[in-house]
Specification:
Low-confidence stretches: none
Structural class: mainly alpha
Helix content: 55-70%
Strand content: under 5%
Shape: globular
Number of helices: 6
Radius of gyration: 15 Å
Distance between the termini: 24 Å
Length: about 130
């Protein structure tokens, strides 16, 4: 859930981390669908170019950091996050590190996966494996 008061017109704040992660999962699913419609590959290169465009960011540095932290190549085709979230979880976690200046071990993975469950509350074998 979003907080009642939004103090920054450019960034949304949430009442709990899991809701922010839910938004990240839904955003990744929308990128997956949009890229497929545009005949583009859902990969780190295209995700970061969309999320942090070169006109506003050092996109190449962002891509390189996400590749290094996630251990996934920038051109590697990622699966639909709703169906298989393991690799996308690593990408989201790496993006959290870039955005917040933290290390991978500091990313609250329990909240990340709680956000996944909120995004797609149907029974999911991926989540059962994590329990």
């Amino acid at each position: 859930m979003q907080t009642n008061v939004q103090t920054d017109p450019y960034f949304v704040t949430f009442t709990e981390l899991k809701w922010g992660f839910r938004a990240a999962w839904k955003l990744m699913a929308s990128y997956y669908a949009k890229f497929n419609d545009q005949h583009k590959v859902f990969n780190i290169l295209n995700i970061i170019c969309r999320w942090a465009p070169p006109s506003e960011n050092n996109t190449l540095a962002y891509i390189n950091t996400v590749v290094k932290l996630s251990g996934i190549g920038d051109l590697h085709s990622l699966p639909n996050p709703e169906v298989n979230g393991e690799e996308v979880a690593r990408v989201i976690a790496a993006m959290v590190c870039v955005e917040n200046g933290i290390k991978m071990e500091q990313v609250p993975m329990d909240d990340l996966w709680a956000g996944y469950q909120e995004a797609w509350p149907h029974p999911n074998p991926l989540l059962k494996e994590r329990e």
